[in-house]
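Researcher: Sequence of Solute carrier family 43 member 3 follows. Predict its structure.
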Amino acid sequence: MAGLGLPLRLATLLTGLLECLCFAGVLFGWPSLVFVFKKEHYFEKLCEPDAGLIGNATEQADCKVQDERFSLIFTIASFMNNFMTFPSGYVFDRFRTTVARLIAIFFYTTATLIIAFTSAGSAVLLFLAMPLLSVGGILFLITNLQIGNLFGQHRSTIITLYNGAFDSSSAVFLIIKLLYETGTSLRASFIFLSVCSTWHVARTFLLMPRGHIPYPLPHDYSYGLCSGNGPTKEEKEAAEQENRELQSKEFLSAKEETPGAGLQQEARSFWSYAFSLRFAWHLVWLSVIQLWHYLFIGTLNSLLTNMAQGDKELVSSYTNAFAFTQFGVLVAPWNGVLMDRLKQKYQKEARETGSSTWVVALCSTVPSLALTSLLSLGFALCASVPVLPLQYLTFILQVISRSFLYGSNAAFLTVAFPSQHFGKLFGLVMALSAVVSLLQFPIFTLIKGPLQNDPFYVSSGGWASLAGGLGLRPLPPRTSRLEGLSKGHPKPGCDGLDM
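Model: Prediction complete. C-alpha cells:
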C-alpha cells in the first residue's frame, strides 16, 4: 500500500471528478436536449397548426402543449433528482459503495438506452428515462463524495469540487446538441453514453472501496487495486479498532467539558440527528436559498423579456451568457479551500487552548455558510434591479452562490454528523428541500396570472426573504452549554454545536 497508495488515491480522485463532470448532473442541461427533441418532432402530434399558415407548417405554430409536455418531464426528473437522494443515501449507507454504484450504473445505462432508441412515436418513454437518469447521477455523486476522506486536510475542497463538477455536467447535453447540428445522430450520442458504463463498472471494482471510506483514515487502509494485497482479517479488525479510537478522540474534549456528551454523540441514532435543531435550521437555510435559485431560473426568460422590452435577439444573447456562466466547477473549490484553511487555523488554536477538535471543525463551516448567504442575497438584489447590463453580475453571483450552496451543504453534513449517517442525512435534506421547491409552481402561476407576467414583485419578496435567511444559521445559539470549550475562551459563532 505504501508504494501504490498515493497514485491509487490520485487515480480515484481524478476519475471520480471526471465521472461527476461527465455523467452525474447531465439532467440540468435539459434545454439543450429539448432543442434536439423538437428537431426530431417529439410530441409534435400534440400541436395544433396555426390556421393562418399554409402547407406543412406545424413546427412554426406556437405549440404550447408540446412545451408543457417537455416541462412536465423536467419537473418530474428534477424533483426525483432531489427527492430520491434520501433512499439513495440509505442504499449507500446500508449496502455500501459497490452495491450503490451497480444500481447507479443499471439506472444510468437503462436511461441512456431508452433515450437512444426512442423516437417521435415513443417519446412518452422519456417520462421513465429522465428520472432514471437523474437518480443514477445522484448515486454517482453520493458514492464519490467519500473520496474526500482519502485526503485529510483537503477534504472540504474535494467535496465542493465534486459538487461543482456535478453542476457543470449540464454541458454534456450542450455537446450532444452541437454534435447533432454537425450530423451526429441522437442515437449515436446516447449509445456512446451507454457504452461508457463499462468504464463505470471497471472503476467500481478497481478504484473504489467495497464498503465506505472511513474518516479519519486508518493506518494501512487499502481498497480497490490494493485490496488483494491488503491486511489480513486480524489486521483489518485491528485497523477498525484503531479507527474507532481515532473517532472517539474527536469527541474527547467535548466529553470532558460536557459530561456524557461525547458518549451520547457516538451512541445516538439516525433519527435523533434528523430531528435535531441543528439539522432543522440547516434544512430551512438550504430550502430558502434553493427555492430562490429555482424560481430565478424558471422566470429568467420573463425577466429578461421585460428588461429587453421584447427584443428577442437581446434576450437570446443574455440567455446564452447565463448558460455559459453555469460552469460551476471553476468556482466551487474556492469554498472548500476556505473551509480547509479555516479548519487548519482553528485546529492550531485548538491545540493551544485544548478545545474540542470536533467543535473546531464545525467552527470552520460557519464563515462558509455566512458567505453563501451573503452571495445569495447579493444575487437576489441584483436580479430585482431592472437594469439589463447588471444581469451579467447577477449571473456570476448566481453560479457562485449556487456552487457554494451545495458545496457548503455537503461539507457541513460531513463535519456536523457521524459519517455512518451521511448518506441518509444528505438524502433527507435534499428530499425535504425538494418538497419545498415545489412552491415555485404556485409562485410561477402567480407571476403568469395576477402579476401579468411581471416577476419583479416576486424578486423583491425573494431578496427580502433571503435577507431574513441570513439569520437562519444551521447552528442555533446555545452558548451556555459550551462555555468551557476553549478553557474560558469560547469561539464566537460556534455556539450550539453540541446539540
